[in-house]
Design a protein that fits this description.
By secondary structure, this protein is an alpha/beta fold. The protein is 26% helix and 27% strand. It folds into 2 domains: 2-156 and 201-309, Metallo-beta-lactamase, Chain A; 161-196, no CATH class.
Length: 310
């Protein structure tokens, strides 16, 4: 199970009701900040999440509405937050701008007691946390080196308690070992193989996050069968030419991608101030019914086959 909290959902510039782009993905004790538009640290505090364990930051691309908030955020982390290290992962172009912002302005001439690592992204695995992974994939936008992210639980074989009961396997550590796929010897001397009590392999929860994007054909495979797809919807079809000119999507294009990829639920963000949320929602729902338009501080719980707005 994953959760995602939207800190900022506006496109390009903030509005009265929407801050600039930023989200936090949570999985147990793990937290990942995706993008940090201007004002992100205040949005984190307003959300009630706080800064604790927020030491891994993923950047979709280097446009200022996605990175400018890193200045204040890192300044606060360095001065007040008890963090030993901070990792910022992004494309080479984005990291170049972030390096200039942090070490040329915010921390210029200072040597903070926090280890700050700028990690260039390539397509593939970023983190392996044992029971879930985070991978990066390329995205087309006007900026170079743009990336999206897949958060995916590893497949698992469910423990079948009815089978264990039939075999008279007592409660306790033996069942735990079998759940983890290890053979056990019971107190009565019987040897139980995991195959005897585990069901068929089931895929884990899959959350796909795309920042700004100018096309969807190259996203079809990575989004396929995702339980939740988070993606931009900066324009409506009436201004599709502008969307193409600036490397963005319309709400309809996002809905068409979700439909073709067999996505469970679509969440739209990066909303232009020129549209109302209900207009964006209506256009996307013309082609895909299970869709939300995110607002600042919206929180969603994502399970295999189910997305719940909290």
């Amino acid at each position: 199970m994953f959760e995602i909290v939207f800190l900022g959902t506006s496109a390009s510039a903030p509005s009265v009701h929407r801050g600039l782009t930023s989200q936090i993905v949570l999985r147990g004790e793990h937290r990942f900040l995706i993008d940090a538009g201007e004002g992100t640290q205040r949005q984190i505090l307003s959300s009630g999440l706080g800064f604790k364990r927020l030491d891994r930051i993923l950047i979709t691309h280097g446009h200022l509405d996605h990175i400018l908030g890193l200045g204040g955020l890192i300044s606060t982390f360095v001065r007040w937050e008890a963090m030993d290290k901070i990792l910022i992962a992004g494309g080479k172009s984005a990291l170049g701008r972030i390096n200039d912002l942090l070490f040329g302005v915010v921390l210029k001439g200072k040597y903070p007691p926090v280890e700050i690592t700028l990690q260039p992204l390539t397509e593939g695995l970023i983190f392996d946390e044992g029971d879930f992974t985070v991978t990066a994939f390329p995205v087309y936008h006007r900026a170079p080196d743009c990336y999206g992210f897949v958060f995916e639980e590893k497949s698992r074989r469910p423990f079948l308690p009815e089978k264990a009961d039939e075999l008279n396997i007592p409660p306790g550590p033996w069942r735990g070992e079998l759940v983890n796929g290890r053979e056990v010897t019971l107190p009565d001397g019987r040897v139980i193989d995991p195959e005897m009590v585990l069901g068929a392999e089931q895929p884990g929860t899959k959350l796909v996050h795309v920042g700004d994007a100018g096309r969807t054909d190259n996203l079809l495979d990575v989004a396929r069968d995702a339980d939740c797809l988070v993606i931009e919807a900066t324009y409506l079809e009436t201004e599709k030419e502008l969307a193409e000119q600036f490397g963005h999507l319309t709400a309809r294009q996002a809905g068409e991608l979700a439909l073709e990829a067999g996505v469970g639920t679509l969440i739209l963000t990066h909303i232009s101030r020129r549209y109302r949320a209900d207009q964006v929602l209506e256009e996307a729902r013309e082609v895909f019914p299970r869709v939300y338009v995110a607002r600042d501080f919206d929180r969603f719980q994502i399970k295999r086959g189910d997305v719940l707005k909290l």
